[in-house]
Amino acid sequence: MTDVKGKVAFITGGGSGVGLGQAEVFGKAGAKIAIADIRDDHLADAVKSLAEKGVDAMSVKLDITDRDAYARAADEVEAKLGPVQLLFNTAGVSIFGPLQNATIEDWQWQMDVNVYGVINGVMTFLPRMLERGDDCHIVNTASMSAFVSLPGTGIYCTGKMAIRGYSECLSMDLKDTKVKVSMLCPGAVDSNIHEAVKTRPAHLQNTGYYGEDPNVMAHLKKVIEHGMKPARLAEYVLKGVEKDDLYILPYPEFRKTLEDIHAKVMAALAKPEDDPEYEQRMARGVPGGQKD
């Protein structure tokens, strides 16, 4: 997809942060924008902010964990703006702490939003995209946590690594279609993800971590407030979509970390000369088999 002008973009989490940055940048590039968010206040503020920047946006309140609501939102947007050709699965939540302290509700909340929310988006729009045969693009927002594990990020990291595998496989499965896939992996972003606990459902409030603690949220904000601005991050996304890049990795500060991780993986991987059955498996065409 070399030109997004005139394309209809559906952006989850579009009421603030990374999603709002995408709405601004893609709107200015000529796309028709629909932003979906679970918070009414964010939607209202976002529409106003975008209008001030010359971007007209349609807003839809949506809980991305609700499949039926997702289908209704898709119908509403397409009835007004036309077929969606750009899907941004951007909405996400986070909560941090040692895995041994996690409750099943801590797991369910994050996995429902960060994993099933993405799957719901793809399963809602992908059949429509394939049926119409348009040039389309799906952008799944993962995180550098899709590659890098850190203490206290276990649930979040599990979900984001799942999105990495999902996006890579989806891209392979769609290689002969006109639907392309990108995976965005942000590092620190100056957003409001530190307020994610405010959207946690009532039936999933039992936690081993923290709730709407203003001190905790203030601390988390300090960690990310010097991160990349959402609109700047979205500029990388626009370039990635224009080039049909699978990986959108805008943070050079992670180069050394990723080099170290992959060096450890390669050091641990068995060598062909040390495995007497290697040639037999290769001759039989084992899955994944590829000679150096």
Description:
By secondary structure, the protein is α/β, with parallel strands linked by helices. The protein has nine helices and seven strands, in the order E-H-E-H-E-H-E-H-E-H-E-H-H-E-H-H. The chain is globular and about 65 Å long. The two termini are 33 Å apart.
Number of strands: 7
Q: Termini, distance in Å?
A: 33 Å
Order of helices and strands: EHEHEHEHEHEHHEHH
Radius of gyration: 20 Å
Can you tag this structure with a few keywords?
292 residues, alpha/beta, seven-stranded parallel sheet, 9 helices, 7 strands, 46% helix, globular
Put the structure in a nutshell.
The protein is α/β, with parallel strands linked by helices and 292 residues long. Helices cover 46% and strands 12% of the residues. It has helices at 17-28, 40-52, 67-81, 104-132, 154-173, 214-224, 230-242, 255-268, 278-283; strands at 8-12, 32-37, 57-61, 84-89, 136-141, 179-184, 247-248.
Question: How do the helices and strands line up, and which of them pair or pack?
Answer:
Blueprint: E1 8-12, H1 17-28, E2 32-37, H2 40-52, E3 57-61, H3 67-81, E4 84-89, H4 104-132, E5 136-141, H5 154-173, E6 179-184, H6 214-224, H7 230-242, E7 247-248, H8 255-268, H9 278-283
Parallel strand pairs: 1-2, 1-4, 2-3, 4-5, 5-6, 6-7
Helix pairs in contact: 1-7, 3-4, 4-5
